[in-house]
Amino acid sequence: MNLSDLAAKGAEPAGALLSLAMTGNGEWEERFLRGLDEACRAFALPLLGGDTVALPAGAPRVLGLTAIGRATVPPPSRGGGRAGDALWLVGTLGDAAAGLSLLEADPAAAGPLVEAYRRPQPLLEAGRALAPHATAMMDVSDGLLLDAHRLAQASGCGLSIDLSAIPLSPAFAAARGTDRAARLFAATAGDDYALLAALPPGVEPLTLLQGNPVRIARVGELTKNGVFQLADDLGPVPLPGRLGYEHHPS
């Protein structure tokens, strides 16, 4: 999750700091740290330090990790988009939420959707390729509709999203289908850690990402009218009451 934030700024991971509050006999912490070590090695992320503290038995565990990155170009913010910019999505949507649904039904569930939920993959290389050209960029962690709306609001723009264009993985299509309901599920799901980039007309991301196997699709554009419009191949789509995962619902 931390590395996905770095990817959205076109940054290369430089290190991490871990705050670990331990409780119990340490067995859980040993398993957690083995997993953390595996993740750090996979992304060449050195653990530079941090803090550990012991809590009373039965206290909830508290974990905090800060990833530090290094950018070679000015990092794109959420608020630099302009009307007429195309919105490009890197990655696929809905896999993690579909995987979580499988686990809620069966804790022993396995497969690519469960793996997508348990082991999200930050799109670091794609982020570095797009950052020099993006007017605005962020990762999609709370749902495409909600995060795209946040980007548009920060940029002072309206928003048009083509639901039919959102990329779905073969595993998601096999499990959930590709109709409007399935695409709305994917577009409002969280934990995808895809990238959403606003790119000016004339910038061709397929060329920028040539040789990178990640999926990329043009899913909409920023507009002047300040309105959020959603449509698919069948016509206009009413906005759902829930655009994505709200950390602090009103």
UniProtKB/TrEMBL annotation:
Q: Which CDD domains match?
A: ThiL
Give the keywords, sorted.
Kinase, Thiamine biosynthesis, Transferase
Give the GO molecular function terms.
kinase activity
The superkingdom of the source organism is: Bacteria
Keyword Kinase listed? The answer is: yes
Keyword hit for Methyltransferase: no
What sequence ranges are listed for the domain PurM-like N-terminal?
1-70
Q: Where is the PurM-like C-terminal domain?
A: 82-229
Any one Pfam family here would be AIRS
> InterPro entries in the record, alphabetically?
PurM-like_C_dom (IPR010918), PurM-like_C_sf (IPR036676), PurM-like_N (IPR016188), PurM-like_N_sf (IPR036921), ThiL-like (IPR006283)
**UniProt-listed PANTHER family:** THIAMINE-MONOPHOSPHATE KINASE
* Protein known as: Thiamine-phosphate kinase
- Gene that specifies this protein: thiL
